[in-house]
Amino acid sequence: MAGVNVPSEIMPLKKVLLHRPGDELLNLTPNTLEELLFDDIPFLKVAQEEHDAFAKILRDEGVEVVYLEDLMAEVLDLYPELREKFLKQWIFEAGIRTDRYQKIIYDYLNDNYPTNKELVLKTMAGINLQELHTDKSNSLVDLVSDASKLVCAPMPNLYFTRDPFAMIGNGVSINRMYSETRNRETIYGEYIFKYHPDLQDVPEYYSRYNTFHIEGGDILNINDKVLAIGISQRTEPDAIDQIAKNIFESDSPIETILAFNIPNSRAFMHLDTVFTQIDYDKFTIHPGIMGPLTVFEIKSDGKGGIKVRERNETLEEILTEYVGRPVTLIPCGGGDRIAAEREQWNDGSNTLCIRPGTVVVYERNDVTNAVLEEAGINVLQMPSAELSRGRGGPRCMSMPLWRDAE
Ligand SMILES: NC(=[NH2+])NCCC[C@H](N)C(=O)O
């Protein structure tokens, strides 16, 4: 399957991009948790088992699973001259700005990670000082610094493949991320969407070099003509204005962008942490956002610009209009306020729809999962004790590359 095709959130999922959590989680320390956007340190072995169970559920449902680390290694295998360019860019963006350290790190990676797959995984994992074995007789830093000091930070959020680049219909948004720690994740997107034979011709609606931030967790494909984007902690209104103009100027069939203004907080970092589509006419929603939510409708003004109007109807009415059938909102946690808050924190409303009415969810959210089952949804549960410590659920951990059309 060449190119990408994601004109909805719910039609049969055929191909999905994942990243299996790796050694980058072993470089999380209590002092760096906040900066690296984790709430606790997952047990890697169990996190990998849970992730493999997720991939198995998807494969058993007929979905082709591809891994980011493989696509990136395939690019470097195909174009050996890119290895040096990629490494130098990665080192620079890791904040290494002196010639001496750039050379030490370059040589270390090049000499010790001969295959491209190993090299890619190592760039994800990060480097600490003790690995570099520089000659202690000619530098003070190695004698006085803490050997566990990170020289190049890890990218522990990579298993949330939803966020750094997002498919929109037949195109992609390569995102500018909100946080320093996640901005290097998009380097892999830059290479795979430029060079990978399956992805290189995909139109790009946003670039990682733009100024304003936008993340894939805020981007929801309602159908081929309507896109929803959250205005959130992670996505700025300026980025939405920009991407809207780019989309309306392109060949994309999208005519309307609905911007959902959600409260700015860590618990609600992206639109998909409070709201996902699970069937033609059903969405799960965290009741905590119902009150404060405002929706803006963005259309082309026909002259290269956009026109925006605030919608004052209820969320059900707005969605019913755009989905084309009466919509039901299913609250996370049922009607129970405490269950809603607890389960939203562990991504109870963050479902991955693999065909209308069939979703993958975290097993731990039993109140919400029971409510979904009562509503007739086929709920496929995955283990989630360790993965959930990164604050993302099945939708965050997956980037669809292909869904069948309606
Ligand atoms: N699409 C999502 N909701 N992704 C969740 C990402 C979680 C990650 N720890 C972050 O803070 O960035």
UniProtKB/TrEMBL annotation:
Catalytic reactions on record: L-arginine + H2O = L-citrulline + NH4(+)
Keyword GTP-binding: no
EC number(s) per entry: 3.5.3.6
Pfam families per the UniProt record, alphabetical: ADI
Active site per database record: C396 (amidino-cysteine intermediate)
GO molecular function: arginine deiminase activity
Keyword flag GTP-binding: no
Top EC category: hydrolase
Compartments where located: Cytoplasm
Record-linked InterPro entries: Arg_deiminase
Pathway: Amino-acid degradation; L-arginine degradation via ADI pathway; carbamoyl phosphate from L-arginine: step 1/2
Family from the record: Belongs to the arginine deiminase family.
Listed name of the protein: Arginine deiminase
Organism: Adlercreutzia faecimuris
